[in-house]
Fold this sequence. Notes:
Distance between the termini: 21 Å
Helix content: under 10%
Low-confidence stretches: none
Mean pLDDT: 91
Structural class: mainly beta
Number of strands: 10
Order of helices and strands: EEEEEEEEEHE
Largest sheet: 6 strands, mixed
Amino acid sequence: MENIVSTDYKNPPLEIGNNEHETATVVVDANSTLKKGSVVKRAASGKFEKATSLSAGDEGLAVIIEDVTNAASSSVDVNIRVMISGRVNRLALTVDDTALTDAQVDTLRGNSIIALPVHEV
């Protein structure tokens, strides 16, 4: 008899496969949580910051793979692993806490992050 595997579709899986990660410094704003699936951009300082928008041609994008909370009253730098390329669940990604647009999906693809729709079967 086979094992039955169930999935929680209210908390969809993020990574689908063939993913590459790196340890990076991410700036987390004061009294906030950078959620798993958030898209971040590499700033001029070399640190990643929460992306508030994406435009064609943006480079240095990554995806947060675990929630990071900052309870301090000022922003902090946190060293964590981020996903820099691979296949991910489009429904689990956000830019500034908002679902991705088709144009943002195209921008991610230009950074080797392939956002694919994953449907409940």
